[in-house]
Design a protein that fits this description.
The protein is of the alpha+beta class and 446 residues long. The chain has helices at residues 11-23, 40-44, 63-72, 89-97, 107-114, 116-125, 141-151, 174-192, 249-266, 296-303, 307-315, 394-407, 417-425, 427-430, 438-443, and strands at residues 4-7, 27-33, 47-52, 77-79, 101-102, 155-159, 168-171, 197-201, 207-215, 221-233, 236-242, 270-279, 282-289, 332-339, 351-352, 355-357, 364-368, 375-376, 383-391, 409-411. Helix 4 (89-97) packs antiparallel against helix 5 (107-114).
Length: 446
Amino acid sequence: MFRKVLIANRGEIALRVIRACRELGIRTVAVYSEADKHSTHVQFADESVCIGPAQATKSYLSLPAVISAADITRADAVHPGYGFLAENATFAEAVNAHGMTFIGPSPAHLRQFGDKLSAKAAARAAGLPLLPGSHGAVEDLEEAVTVAREAGYPLMLKAAAGGGGKGMRIVEDEEQLRKFFVITATEAKAAFGSGLVFLERLLRAPRHVEVQVAGDRFGNAIHVGDRDCSMQRRHQKIIEEAPAPDLSDSLRARILAAAARLVSSTGYVTVGTCEFLVEGDEFFFLEVNPRIQVEHPVSEMVTGIDLVQLQIRLAAGERMPITQDQVQVRGHAIEVRVNAEDPWKFTPSPGRITGYHAPGGPGVRVDSAVHEGAMVQPYYDSLVAKLIVYAPDREAAIRKLLGALDEYVVEGIRTSIPLQKLLLADPAFREVRFHTRYIDEWLKTR
């Protein structure tokens, strides 16, 4: 097991990793920008190192700064959390080259799954169902037109190296394809360093179902249940739950088996997430997120498995500590992301928190690094906290979450709580009549 882990992140995920390391008897090193000098994760780590000014590009995204901090503190492993450098294969290589362990997948797997085309190729080789469309990048507009005619409209035009809802356009017909093709490729080149794009069939009202997976260096691969992340705004998740509601036993079993098969066939090590689009009784591979996910707590709540500890153990070379039969899903968990933003305009709302009260009680969990007097910085992601509840069934979980949101007090900034309370109380959510575009359509009626 590792002796000391440097956490190349900030906020709630850095604090989450600190807690996991403490329980494993591992010392921790926090890195921080000048703006984060008084942050909670800095106070609770065993050591801390300032790595630069407030701008993320000069601190949390600076490979030399993070590697130097790990070197001078003699860390023997680096945990990237999520975001920032978590999926950067060059960073993972640099960590390994300096004699430390990157707590995540190999650089090869980061590259394989960081590129949507190579991820689709791996999924195809493992026998997973794919949406109709191009089997790889389309070289030019005329090839795109030919592929589109064969696959049928509507289609999604996607950047191969994109992510987080960026580099995507809906094309309803050939006229739109001709209009958007060069624009999308140019934008993709500017944003991601690659102008490669591909096409796949657009599902009008799919659900987003993902599977938590894990693999070790001895060929063992398991899934840790499924989650539904369909409640999104512009492809950004707002509400997540586990298990995914209203799936037939047969469909759920097929999705879980497909995810585990992909991990096994590729030799993937540590934790990750396989994402799928589901419509009716069909499911299609979407992508792999080769890291710990923001929404991992809902899977922890229904299985009792500490996924961050599991991630660390597997990165340290340990054998998978559980078998597939030992993964048991019980009850229901729901998570909302409390963001520092206007709940209707979705504009950032940074500032000082002048009053704070977190909800509590049985089955209520708050993953956060803020407190009264804390400063929500304008330089980084707007996530303030993750509120997670657990109950024996979904309806009880919804009621518990609404009660917890009523208790949650965050003063001095605006948050997404008012929006989330309305969405949770909406009959469409309670009756599972939602899809990935539901919130965007719902907002148009407000």
